[in-house]
Design a protein that fits this description.
The complex is a heterodimer.
Chain A (H helix, E strand, L loop, with lengths): L1 H6 L25 H18 L13 E6 L5 H12 L3 E6 L11 H10 L4 E6 L4 H7 L4 E7 L5 H15 L6 E5 L6 H12 L3 E5 L26 E3 L2 H4 L5 E4 L5 H4 L6 H8 L3 H4 L7 E3 L12 H4 L6 H20 L5
Parallel strand pairs in A: 1-2, 1-3, 3-4, 5-6, 5-8, 6-7, 8-9
Chain B lengths: L2 H10 L12 H4 L1 E5 L1 H18 L6 E6 L3 H16 L5 E4 L30 E9 L3 H11 L6 E9 L11 E5 L7 E5 L1 H4 L3 E5 L2 H7 L1
Parallel strand pairs in B: 2-3, 2-4, 4-5, 5-6
Antiparallel strand pairs in B: 1-8, 7-8
Helix pairs in contact in B: 3-4
Classes of the chains: A alpha/beta, B alpha/beta.
């Protein structure tokens, strides 16, 4: 078994345009537009599977997927679990709080143990930015980053972009506004990489204290050692949403208030809540998105969250299809 | 297909056989085994056979296997419609998720959604594919099909049967039996996908050289 994992790690000569030879998915910034489109095309087929009465195919039968989560997560973990099961894989969930990590086992020891137990795909979330990169260098398993620190959350970005494409088609020239706590958001970062690569315009909007360092209201991203792709920055949400095709609200983490980054919740709501009045300034029919979990009445008004423009539930459903696509693209070829 | 495009199609491809002399390996490798007219006749004959075997087309559903089985199924449905005046539902089946040899990393694993437009429970499903070879694709297609329902009967129509079965599978309708060696490749080309209609055998270049 391990030999077959090793054997297929060598990229084949059949590297035709649009092929897939990645062993890991660590962030969106490493994907070419063609690779992203392949994920989306594959996700279309997975959506068909999910629409069936019995949404299950035998594709990854005999493959073991381990979800290793060092941070609490409900939807991402459940989404990966459902995706793996729909493809016929076996799934083991490990929450680090209840594991030997408590006994002081190091990350790499934990990973080696999981590999020795016979797992093939490791889906991991870690509070430390870069942790999945370290793991990927030390394992024969396929590593999927399910969120690392403030750095990246590639499957969330792929499902966000997939959802936009399902509704809007080609994203070239589309304006996507991401509102809220950008500085601490791995979702905003990964979304920005993917969206700009596909030709969309990305605007980050939030109070200056919640914008990433190196980005200032007048400035643009794209410098800073390319920690961010070129994005536009705006602190005035009314201005930012003008002509927007997509408005995405990020969850406001209340603990930010204690850090002195926000004057008050009420002030934040007044300036940065995505509400009907602000949405009216966007393009008619603009999509409203949220990566969840939502604080209704804070970053998004209940009316907007339930409006026909909101595709928040679609994001969740598409999340399973996109994760199936990623698991299929990485996990196939094993054991054949 | 207009006669003009037929003409361009014919002139665009290399003249096969003796063209170019002994060093023109690429043009000698490809050998046409069915022309557009052969294919049209075969499809019409199979359409008649489907009608005959099923005593009409009530309860018959054509399911094409992606990629080239789908346009073939449509052509069969068209011919059946012409002969019987009845519309036969046509579906598309992608077997990518059911293969026993998933394409390895580095290749393009094109998956497309299956689309079975009608309830297949109790129906007579005619699976349509371009080439029948080892039978493994058909095995996968049967599994995929069963996930959509419980057909009363499944029949198999192929444009080409090239032999070398690895599973106990046979076709009910065959356009043409073409004996091949395992080293050869059979390519069915369809206007809808490839811009022209023909079936060719590709032989490995070294064998062609040996013969010369």
């Amino acid at each position: 078994m391990s030999s077959s994992v090793e054997g297929q790690s060598a990229p084949t000569a059949l590297q035709e345009a649009g092929g897939w030879s990645r062993r890991h998915l660590l962030d969106v910034d490493e994907l070419t537009p063609a690779e992203m489109l392949l994920v989306f095309e594959t996700a279309d087929a997975m959506r068909e599977v999910l629409s069936r009465e019995v949404p299950r195919v035998p594709t990854l039968r005999g493959t073991t997927v381990v979800n290793l989560f060092y941070e609490p997560s409900t939807r991402t973990r459940a989404s990966f679990e459902l995706a793996a099961k729909a493809l016929g894989a076996d799934v083991v969930n490990i929450a680090a709080e209840q594991s030997s990590v408590k006994k002081g086992e190091s990350l790499l020891d934990t990973v080696r143990t999981i590999e020795s137990l016979g797992a093939h795909v490791l889906v991991m979330r870690h509070w430390q930015s870069g942790a999945p990169y370290l793991v990927a260098r030390h394992t024969r398993m396929h590593v999927i980053n399910a969120g690392d620190g403030w750095h990246a959350h590639p499957t969330q970005a792929l499902l966000d972009i997939y959802t936009m494409r399902c509704r809007l088609g080609d994203l070239r020239g589309r304006k996507v506004v991401i509102v809220g706590d950008i500085a601490h958001s791995r979702v905003a970062r990964s979304d920005a990489w993917g969206l700009t690569a596909l030709g969309a315009r990305v605007v980050f909007c939030g109070p200056p204290t919640l914008l990433p360092a190196g980005l200032r209201p007048d400035g643009r991203g794209g410098e800073e050692g390319a920690l961010l792709p070129p994005v536009q920055v705006e602190t005035d949400l009314d201005r930012a949403v003008e002509d927007a095709d997509v408005v995405m609200a990020l969850r406001l983490q209340r603990e930010r208030m204690q850090g002195g980054l926000l004057p008050s919740l009420r002030e934040y709501v007044r300036q940065y809540q995505v509400n009907e009045e602000r949405l009216a300034r966007a393009r008619p029919g603009a999509l409203v998105m949220h990566p969840g979990p939502m604080n209704e009445g804070i970053e998004i008004s209940p009316a907007v969250a339930r409006s026909t423009q909101a595709v928040i539930e679609e994001q969740v459903t598409n999340g399973v299809a996109v994760r199936m696509a990623v698991l299929y693209l990485l996990g196939r070829g094993r054991g054949s | 297909m207009t006669s003009e495009s037929e003409f361009t199609g014919a002139s665009a491809r290399p003249i096969r056989g003796n063209a170019g002399g002994p060093f023109s390996v690429s043009s000698a490798r490809e050998h046409v085994v069915m022309t557009e007219a052969d294919m049209r006749r075969a499809i019409r004959r199979i359409a008649h056979e489907i009608i005959e075997r099923n005593k009409g087309v009530e309860g018959v559903v054509l399911v094409g296997m992606r990629t080239r089985g789908v346009p073939l199924a449509r052509r069969l449905a068209e011919a059946i419609g012409e002969f019987e005046g009845a519309a036969v539902p046509v579906g598309a089946l992608d077997i990518g998720l059911y293969r026993d040899d998933l394409p390895s990393l580095g290749t393009r694993p094109a998956l497309r959604p299956s689309n079975i437009p009608t309830d297949i429970d109790g129906k007579r499903v005619v699976l349509v594919d371009d080439v029948l070879y080892t039978g493994r694709s058909i095995r996968a297609a049967l599994d995929a099909l069963m996930d959509f329902g419980r057909p009363g009967q499944v029949q198999l129509a192929v444009l080409v049967d090239r032999g070398h079965r690895e599973l106990p599978i046979r076709a009910d309708y065959v356009g043409k039996n073409i004996p091949t060696s395992r080293r050869e490749e059979v390519q069915v080309r369809l206007v809808e996908v490839d811009g022209r209609d023909e079936v060719v055998i590709l032989r490995p270049a070294e064998e062609v050289l040996d013969e010369q």
